[in-house]
């Protein structure tokens, strides 16, 4: 548990070095320095921001009072006191920090040995006494095990804590490491002993979905199990916990809600542009698995730091579920490491042949951008996979994520766009050519050729997380390239009509209200036009709109498809059309109470039904984002290949094997 404190100090220090948080004291307290990934920076930014938001609100609301105090439980190597003191915010506030005795002793020695820190604390009267390892006028550092409540109370009293004045308790990923009877007792003790008190809690939530299971497994491996998750699995349960233990007011938000509601728009944009970033799914999943809670009692006026500063729709009611879809492992494909990947694409090139390309995953025993293709072919009802080595002159063309693959004929497919790193400029187009005759592709049977584009069409290819959809206009075949993002533009809303097979850029008139820019949406061919659903918009907010690009006499028209109930906004899903129904598979949404399964939209009536995926027969967490899926209409079956991603600091999760979803019960013809 003590190790988690120093690891978190290093992560906060790295985030500060990149400009996410302004804190010059972190580097003095963190000890070792290590640069973390952008996803980690964002995660620690939102954590620091939530704590700061509530602390500053407490100081603001109590500034006219003669004395207040802050008690930070399990403070570790946190810099809160030094920041507040440096900003001149502690005129009448004493900060008490409590942690394990050896952590408190280490921190006290650090402070004493560094002028910049010891000058702020002031005269500490020599060495610490007993559990009080450092004592300045407005700063007390105590070494006590939080689970020993009577010992904690005795030491706090000795250090001068005053039960009669307004007190803010802070527990930042601390209580969950304690046995529940002890953490509950601590919450109740704080409410009973302090007539005017506030409590700020930041920790994990939602243990049972795929991300939650990966998160729990990570903490178990560190021998730091998260005890609070079983009795308090969601924000509402945590709220009930505090209200039942003597607190009279309590509000709670997950971190997606906090980021949207409590961080000003210009600050959101500043953070979103600090460094190249392309892990939106994992960022939003991390945020839906952490919450900030503010409880209070006896405060006049009442303490409510978690009131939204902007008007945003509150967490809607849980998604209504129309039924479930069974998931089963594809037995013959379980040993194929090359199918464990994300950000890849799969396409049905012939009735029993699927080609999977690109992405990030396992190759030659390591995690990397996958260069080889995989071909899945079905014989006597069973799928088998073979790896196809590529022969590409420039290796960058073989290492791409978030591209598209469009089948143009039995012998030809087109790869559009994609990226290597998020700062790369996009990767152009490739032809994939297959033999005419055989039904199954052999290891040497895919020829790859670079496409030389006319200058007018080049911009269509320099993007990723876009869509490329086959369509017709006046009987001619076109590819419609839409949206996505690029190294320069975080979200695109433009489109291109590419005439096949020569891929010449054609200007075709489009009327109607233009959809807002988006990436990570889905696009399907339907009745000669294109259906666009969901996606991530300009402010990194999921979208719930569905548009049809419909052919008219002179060109096309954007038309909104109204759904009822309204489609829950989502992105990073896949989509298919079957007999007038749009099927949306998986993705990421902000409804933390559940994860997206399969949504069926009737394109005639707009009726929108959500089905959960029954994962009872899977022995591992199924992550349905950054996956690919292929719909087999005769069997009414969906084959889901790959999916997953970097689960914050909890490790990379790749779905270990393809999964079959049987849709026959929900696609009954009426």
From TrEMBL:
Pfam families, per this entry? Kelch_KLHDC2_KLHL20_DRC7, LCM
What enzyme category does the UniProt record give? transferase
What Gene Ontology molecular function terms does this protein carry?
tRNA methyltransferase activity
Q: Which InterPro entries match?
A: Gal_Oxase/kelch_b-propeller, Kelch-typ_b-propeller, Ppm1/Ppm2/Tcmp, SAM-dependent_MTases_sf
Kindly state which reaction or reactions the protein catalyses: 7-[(3S)-(3-amino-3-methoxycarbonyl)propyl]wyosine(37) in tRNA(Phe) + S-adenosyl-L-methionine + CO2 = wybutosine(37) in tRNA(Phe) + S-adenosyl-L-homocysteine + 2 H(+); 7-[(3S)-3-amino-3-carboxypropyl]wyosine(37) in tRNA(Phe) + S-adenosyl-L-methionine = 7-[(3S)-(3-amino-3-methoxycarbonyl)propyl]wyosine(37) in tRNA(Phe) + S-adenosyl-L-homocysteine
Query: Could you confirm whether the keyword tRNA processing appears in this record?
Result: yes
Q: Name one GO biological process term.
A: tRNA methylation
Q: What is its EC number?
A: 2.1.1.290, 2.3.1.231
Q: Which UniProt keywords apply?
A: Methyltransferase, S-adenosyl-L-methionine, Transferase, tRNA processing
Q: Does the keyword S-adenosyl-L-methionine apply?
A: yes
Pathway info? tRNA modification; wybutosine-tRNA(Phe) biosynthesis
The UniProt function text for this chain reads: Probable S-adenosyl-L-methionine-dependent methyltransferase that acts as a component of the wybutosine biosynthesis pathway. Wybutosine is a hyper modified guanosine with a tricyclic base found at the 3'-position adjacent to the anticodon of eukaryotic phenylalanine tRNA. May methylate the carboxyl group of leucine residues to form alpha-leucine ester residues.
Q: What is annotated about its quaternary structure and interactions?
A: Interacts with RNF144B/IBRDC2.
Family per UniProt? Belongs to the methyltransferase superfamily. LCMT family.
The entry's protein name is tRNA wybutosine-synthesizing protein 4
Provenance organism? Bombycilla garrulus (Bohemian waxwing)
């Amino acid at each position: 548990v003590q190790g988690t404190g120093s690891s978190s100090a290093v992560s906060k220090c790295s985030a500060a070095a990149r400009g996410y948080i302004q804190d010059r004291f972190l580097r003095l307290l963190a000890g070792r320095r290590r640069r973390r990934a952008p996803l980690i920076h964002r995660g620690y930014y939102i954590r620091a921001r939530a704590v700061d938001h509530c602390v500053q609100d407490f100081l603001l609301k109590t500034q006219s009072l003669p004395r207040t105090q802050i008690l930070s439980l399990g403070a570790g190597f946190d810099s809160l006191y030094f920041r507040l003191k440096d900003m001149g915010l502690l005129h009448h506030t004493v900060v008490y920090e409590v942690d394990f005795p050896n952590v408190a002793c280490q921190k006290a020695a650090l402070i004493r040995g560094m002028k910049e820190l010891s000058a702020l604390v002031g005269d500490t009267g020599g060495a610490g006494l007993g559990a009080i390892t450092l004592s300045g006028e407005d700063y007390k550092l105590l070494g006590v095990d939080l689970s020993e409540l009577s010992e904690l109370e005795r030491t706090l009293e000795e250090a001068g804590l005053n039960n009669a004045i307004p007190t803010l308790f802070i527990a930042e990923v601390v209580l969950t490491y304690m046995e529940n009877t002890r953490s509950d007792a601590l919450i109740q003790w704080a409410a009973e002993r302090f007539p005017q008190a506030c409590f700020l809690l930041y920790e994990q939530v939602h243990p049972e979905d795929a991300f939650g299971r990966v998160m729990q497994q990570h903490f178990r491996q560190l021998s730091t199990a998260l005890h609070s998750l079983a009795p308090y699995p969601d924000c509402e349960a945590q709220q009930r916990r505090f209200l039942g233990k003597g607190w009279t007011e309590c509000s709670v938000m997950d971190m997606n809600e906090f980021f949207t509601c409590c961080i000003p728009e210009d600050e959101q944009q500043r953070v979103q542009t600090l460094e190249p970033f392309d892990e939106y799914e994992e960022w939003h999943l991390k945020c839906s698995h952490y919450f900030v809670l503010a409880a209070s009692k006896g405060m006049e006026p009442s303490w409510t730091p978690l009131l939204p500063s902007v008007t945003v729709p509150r967490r809607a009611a849980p998604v209504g579920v129309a039924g479930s879809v069974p998931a089963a492992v594809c037995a013959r494909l379980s040993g194929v490491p090359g199918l464990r990947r994300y950000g890849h694409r799969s396409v049905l090139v012939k009735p029993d042949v699927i080609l999977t390309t690109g992405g990030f995953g396992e190759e030659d025993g390591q995690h990397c951008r996958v260069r080889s293709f995989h071909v899945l072919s079905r014989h006597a009802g069973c799928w088998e996979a073979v790896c196809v080595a590529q022969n590409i002159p420039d290796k960058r063309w073989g290492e791409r994520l978030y591209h598209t693959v469009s089948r143009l004929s039995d012998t030809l497919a087109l790869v559009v766009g994609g990226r290597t790193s998020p700062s790369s400029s996009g990767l152009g187009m490739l032809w994939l050519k297959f033999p005419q005759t055989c039904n199954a592709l052999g290891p040497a049977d895919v020829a790859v050729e670079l496409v030389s584009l006319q200058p007018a069409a080049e911009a269509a290819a320099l993007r990723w997380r876009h869509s490329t959809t086959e369509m017709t206009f006046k009987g001619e075949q076109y590819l419609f390239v839409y949206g996505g993002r690029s190294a320069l533009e975080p979200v695109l809303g433009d489109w291109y009509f590419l005439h096949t097979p020569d891929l010449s850029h054609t200007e075709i008139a489009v009327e109607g209200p233009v959809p807002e820019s988006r990436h990570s949406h889905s696009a399907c061919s339907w009745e000669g036009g294109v259906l666009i659903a969901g996606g991530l918009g300009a402010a990194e907010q999921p979208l719930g709109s569905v548009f049809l690009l419909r052919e008219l006499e002179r060109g096309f028209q954007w038309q909104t498809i109204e759904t009822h109930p309204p489609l829950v906004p989502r992105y990073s899903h896949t989509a298919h059309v079957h007999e007038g129904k749009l099927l949306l598979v998986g993705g990421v949404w902000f409804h933390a109470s559940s994860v997206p399964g399969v949504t069926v939209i009737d394109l005639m009536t707009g009726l929108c039904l959500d089905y959960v995926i029954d994962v009872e027969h899977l022995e591992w967490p199924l992550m349905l984002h950054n996956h690919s899926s292929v719909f087999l209409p005769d069997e009414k079956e969906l084959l889901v290949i790959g999916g997953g991603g970097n689960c914050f600091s909890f490790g990379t999760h790749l779905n270990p094997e393809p999964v079959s979803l049987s849709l026959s019960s929900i696609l009954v013809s009426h």
